Amino acid sequence: MRPLRCVLNSSIVLVGLMASVNLWALPSDQQQPVTLEADRATFNERTGVTTYSGGVVITQGSIRIEADSLVVNLDSNRSIRDATAQGRPARFQQQVAADKGIARGEGQKILYNAQTGILTLSGRALLTQDGASFRGETLRYSMNQGDIEATGSSKQRVKLVIPPSSTQTPASAKSQ
Question: What is the largest CA-CA distance in the chain?
């Protein structure tokens, strides 16, 4: 691998990654510029692998990804196949809809599969939105369906916290 000499290759990969995530974000996010900060970036033309390292921060509108490193793999058509963020922890956030709070996730490793739209957070994984939280060793979040699958381990059981409904008063909760 050679260090990126041209910002263009890096930008194409980054824009492709953010565009694939944008399918499930606020429509206004797509009109925002993509900003990437890292200490180092390398691109391998032959393998289609781009690596960003050292305090990686990517933003576009409500979308934010923070990691120690990010590796993006392209397929033979030069489209994003997957991206893996690693950190202590790696973090992401995005606002899916204007009427929803910001979804935040973290884990030692975050794998994004562009073909399936599934985010897999592993290593003390946590996903929160609108007061609800999901915690486990591994969380799989379908950005297409909104489904979450949590898996525990011998050291960490799955834990879900769901806030009380704001439409239900204590009196109406007793009558059900």
Answer: 67
Residue 63 neighbours by CB under 8 Å, 6+ apart: 18, 21, 22, 25, 29, 92, 93, 94
Is the pTM higher than 0.85? The answer reads no
Q: Give 48-101 pLDDT, tens digit per residue.
A: 899 999 999 988 888 888 999 999 888 888 888 888 999 999 999 988 777 888
CATH architecture of the domain 2-164 equals Sandwich (2.60)
Token pair of 108, please? 């030692």
Instruction: Tell me if 45 sits within 8 A of 105, measured CB to CB.
Output: no
Helices (H) and strands (E) in the chain, counts: 2, 11
List, in order, residues 6 or more apart from 25 with CB less than 8 Å away.
61, 62, 63, 94, 95, 96
In the chain, the amino acid numbered 41 is: A
